Amino acid sequence: MIYICAAVYLLIMNLVSFCMMYADKQRAIRHKWRISEKTLFLSAIFGGSLGGILGMRIFRHKTRHWYFVWGLPFILAVQILILLVLWYAAEYGTELLATV
Q1: Does residue 47 come out as left (phi exceeding 0), alpha (psi in the -120 to 50 range) or beta?
Q2: H helix runs in the chain, sequence order
Q3: What count of Cα atoms within 13 Å lies in the side-chain half-sphere of residue 20?
């Protein structure tokens, strides 16, 4: 059950990040109020990094900013590493403790 909840959460966060990139691009084109870069990064940190990367690439938005070009993939890599460590600990954690 926890895996389903986590998957749904990540799906929603990635959709939100993707849509935020689209909305910010449209606002930039129309010279309207923009979504702050801090908000875009926070949506990536809270699980929407893949959606942010896809939105950045598909809509060609924020691709001139090195901190987005390098920052979003870095956030994704850290999130994948954390998930792998958590998964490994959940699968083999008790066995590792027994060998110590």
Answers
A1: left
A2: 2-29, 37-43, 49-58, 66-69, 71-99
A3: 24
pLDDT digits (tens, 9 = 90+) for 36-89: 999 999 999 999 999 999 999 999 999 999 999 999 999 999 999 999 988 888
Distance CA 43, CA 93 (A): 30
Cα 78 from chain centroid?
10
Q: What confidence score (pLDDT) does residue 63 get?
A: 93
Q: Which residue is associated with the tokens 């954390």?
A: 82
Structure tokens at 5: 């909840």
CA pair distance 29, 2, nearest whole angstrom? 41
Residue 97 scores a pLDDT above 70 = no
- Whole-structure pTM value: 0.86
Tokens 């998964």 correspond to: 87
